[in-house]
């Protein structure tokens, strides 16, 4: 089979890596891909959001299955456009991807179907939002409705900060139209866990749990990033919590989407917080998480292509999905200055040495190949991922791997996976 994976970051490298292990997959294309992906797939220079060009390519190359990994092409309807040309595509259609594309949609869905989440109000007018803030408890959480590269959420610790966030989103349009409407919601506390789930709209099968580290520096200091590292499994997500989530969140969400005529097929990502009043949904994503995928898929023993194939045909119930015990850790190596200003073009060395340690895979995020050399080409550059018989062993291994890798001004967090919740 010929598969096209859409995207070009660490998540896509992991998906391509896992698909390349399937005996059913003969050839993988990836658009646009990166330097690491190029070792496993033929990279095609098409932007992930260029729906028309992607469909044209898929038709010409006679692709058997397209896997759309990032949120924006899903929200733009890339799966619908592929299907319209008779191409099998993995991922939600636009009418279901809205669960991530519009925070107003997802909050209203949860309210309507009694799925636990933070209390909220929606505003399309800055004056009304500011008036509401005068009476709202602080801290408060301000969210732009639309996609904002993971940056559209402000936790305001003071009224001034909250008002500033409203002005920036609604009047200065720092997130463009994504901030035309905002959600102001209750500030919740508790440990967070990410659970990604395969679903075909009839069956939902959660993957092993994971936890992200969003802040740039150790001890959760510094600015929010796209994710500085992940580990799997979460230290708090036990069998009891998994049962609670299945009953109160996972199944009700799948059913709610069906009831709305928006059947969700693909990977549904649940960003959860274990509050003292039970587990609540912080956010939904309509896709694999990045860098959660880097620690979840290395623990998958089953054939990923077969799972995608079954979901497209709505027979996920017939697939037995097996996971490896133990743990996995991904430490992100970022460019100096990330997440603000950073330079690109530094040569990267030591990737092979890290992988030679065994049980380590270095997934590329922002890299490209120039004159046979792999150089940095983004803020998050690599995800050094280790699997081991326990989480603690995986942490140790991942850091041994990171120490082998080098590029100018490389920085990484030293505490990935270490935080313990009691
Ligand atoms: P999101 O982009 O929706 O995942 O939000 C980014 C981060 O903001 C989450 O991972 C949480 O740490 C935090 N966050 C979002 N909503 C809330 C909330 N209602 N209460 C507390 N923290 C939140
Ligand atoms: N790691 C968070 C996300 O993929 O949205």
Structure notes:
The chain has 422 residues and is of the alpha+beta class. It has four domains: 2-91, Rossmann fold (3-Layer(aba) Sandwich); 125-180, ATP-grasp fold, A domain (Dna Ligase, domain 1, 2-Layer Sandwich); 192-318, 2-Layer Sandwich (D-amino Acid Aminotransferase, Chain A, domain 1), CATH 3.30.470; 327-411, Glycinamide Ribonucleotide Synthetase, Chain A, domain 4 (Alpha-Beta Complex). Helices cover 30% and strands 26% of the residues. The strands form six sheets. A five-stranded parallel beta sheet has the order 3-2-1-4-5, with helices on both faces. Strands 12-15-18-22-19 form a five-stranded antiparallel beta sheet. A four-stranded antiparallel beta sheet has the order 6-9-7-8, with helices on both faces. A hairpin with a 4-residue loop joins strand 10 (192-199) and strand 11. The model has no long low-confidence stretch (mean pLDDT 96). The structure holds adenosine monophosphate and glycine (GLY). Adenosine monophosphate binds next to strand 8, strand 9 and strand 17.
